[in-house]
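Worked problem 6 (solution included).
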Amino acid sequence: MSELAFVKSMQESQERIVREDAVKAMNLTYKDELTAAIEKLAEDPFVRFVGYGVKIGGRAMGTLKNVPDSQLIEMPVAENLMVSFAIGLSLKGLKPVVFIERFDFILNAMDAIVNHLDKIAEISHGEFTPTMILRIVVGNKDKPLFTGKTHTQDFSFGLRQFVKFPVIQLVKPDEIAFQYKAAHAFLGRRSTALVEYKDLM
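Solution. The predicted structure is:
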């Protein structure tokens, strides 16, 4: 590791420690941290939030309430279409964040994720490199109630076996901002799947 890389790594570690202390001091909730991280992403004018329930309905559980409508793209309930559409946005220079309301429904998008998003750069010999953030939610088992077997499954381990990009489970409020910032920084080079848990909100 070069001296510059080492210094940068140390600075990032210090920033994270400061942030963790601030979170503890303010007692921010999981949803507070998630909303703040999403709003930070929205400061980039090239970011677009794609999914169903992002513009109408609950605005992604309220986490997109302060994001401008111009950055929200409401889609039909068709996960494969959402990911494919987002690939197109990425190829046009935008930075899509695809909201998958339940991890269970990622199965409908696996063709677009595994055979296209994860492979286009390799197939095209680097000519095209579509990337995105997959924002995937594991449904609630406890709060406020159990939403059913087909709405509460967590396929994080399985998804990792199919793709080369990271699949990161967000289980602590104080890691959310860091992971979203890192995922945003890597857009254009690789995708990231960030897994959220509705029971923690």
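Discussion: The chain is about 40% helix and 15% strand.
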